[in-house]
Amino acid sequence: MSIKLFGFWRSMATFRVRIAMNLKGLKPDEEASIDLMKGQQFADTYKAVNPQMVLPALLDGEPPVLFQSMAILEYLDERFPKPPLLPSDARGRARVRGLAQIVASDAHPLYVPRVRNYLQKELKLDEAQVNAWCHHWQAAAMRAIETHLAGDKETGLYCHGDAPTLADICLASHVVACRLFKLDLSPFPRSVRVVDECLKLEAFARAHPLKQPDTPKDLSH
User: Fold this and answer.
1) Residue 220's pLDDT is what?
2) 90-201 CATH
3) CB of 9 within 8 A of CB of 212?
4) pTM for the full model?
5) Considering only CA atoms, which of 14, 6, 59 is closest in space to residue 31?
């Protein structure tokens, strides 16, 4: 059964899926780069893959294609259970999912390309105003996560204990996005510490947006 990943170097949702696949020891047999900046997600060929025209999408053998990064992450965790991305206890799973959803449900959707494009083209906001919008929602998520990490004894080397979970995958994608948008992260030392620990792991480091084959050469490292 072959795995095909539809993604883009700057897609933080794709970044999350790449991390999970790396942690599971999986490598896509094929990767399709869908350039969000050029609008390739709106092409009929990709619309046939994902009618919502967003990334990522994953084809695991037979159709239908899987869509939405959080659903893909849980699918991968169920299909390839080692190492687990969720704790074994119900309360721990709820905490990890809650932390992950602060990023994936509440923050990230507010600064994706389609939202930024709407702000610029329809509401006529200039670049500084759009960046202020992005920073507002990025910082709001960071404040919430920082408070949770500081106030819960379950916080360990990572968001929940001493093994990476869905929460770390989502927080890493958010912190990397904040860095790309040049948000000041100094008020969030616990979150930054956790992500820096994550990025020491090969699975996270190799998935970094700036290390993908379609990353512009002047940005890659």
Assistant:
1) 63
2) 1.20.1050.10
3) yes
4) 0.96
5) 6
